[in-house]
Amino acid sequence: MADLTPRQINILKHLVEEFIDKAQPVGSEVMEKKFNLGICPATIRNEMSRLAQMGYIKKQHSSSGRVPTSMGLKFYVKQLMEPEKLSVSEEIGIKDKLWEHRSNFDRMLSQATKELAKRTKCWSVSATQQGDFFSSGVANLLDEPEFFDIDVTRTTLSLMDQVDFWNKVMEDTFHAVGNEEFHILIGSEMGAEYLESCGLTYQDYEIGPHKGIIGILGPARQSYSEVVPLINYFARIITEIGS
């Protein structure tokens, strides 16, 4: 995988998962005590330094610990993450909620957005190329430490009214080469100041004249193993019911 050794991959995987769970920089002592890596703290520090030099992790402020960069998070999500499987009851429950609104696409998409927010406990958003925008669960952001910073919260919420932002996201998505399983924008990729600690995870759908995206916007350290399967399922069901 990429230019990483198996040991570096193992360290990166545990570091990202610890950061997602605790929202704190991760030090070599924590890595050594909490995970059975089979190497001493000094070796862990050396490997973490190499991972930092390669751009996968970085030092945060004056803390001795490290956090994953957008590159490190994306590598984890695309290469290392083990997605959780939705239960049959979850799938049926989601499908039933959307099926009720199958005769009205806007209502179905609005309901899908509400259900996704409820199940991910994140801010769920959806948009169409026709210019419709739906959101739900924005108050969930206030439970995350990243949004204790008023500048981060204000900037994130301002995206709700930025039609150009959502149009560009969809334009880039539908003109991308290949068929991505899901899409992620982290930090500066969203093109605004103060969003370094934020991320947008989404999937696209296309049903006749209806084309758009659905996903969640929140901390960059989202619980990807849980939210990605949910987002993918919602996009699939929207396409299935709407076809």
How does this model look, in words?
The protein is α+β, with helices and mostly antiparallel strands and 243 residues long. It folds into 2 domains: 6-80, Winged helix-like DNA-binding domain superfamily/Winged helix DNA-binding domain (Arc Repressor Mutant, subunit A), CATH 1.10.10.10; 88-242, GAF domain (Beta-Lactamase, 2-Layer Sandwich). It is built from 9 helices and 7 strands. It has helices at residues 6-22, 28-34, 41-53, 70-80, 88-99, 105-120, 150-158, 163-174, 224-242; strands spanning 57-59, 66-68, 123-128, 133-136, 183-186, 198-207, 210-219. It has a 5-stranded antiparallel sheet with strand order 4-3-7-6-5, with helices on both faces. Strand 6 (198-207) and strand 7 (210-219) form a beta hairpin. Helix 1 (6-22) packs across helix 3. The mean pLDDT is 90.
Widest sheet, order of strands = 4-3-7-6-5
Shape: globular
User: How large is the share of residues in beta strands?
Assistant: 15-25%
Under the CATH scheme, which class of the largest domain?
Answer: Alpha Beta
The CATH superfamily of the largest domain is known as GAF domain
How far is the N terminus from the C terminus?
Answer: 38 Å
**Class from secondary-structure proportions:** alpha+beta
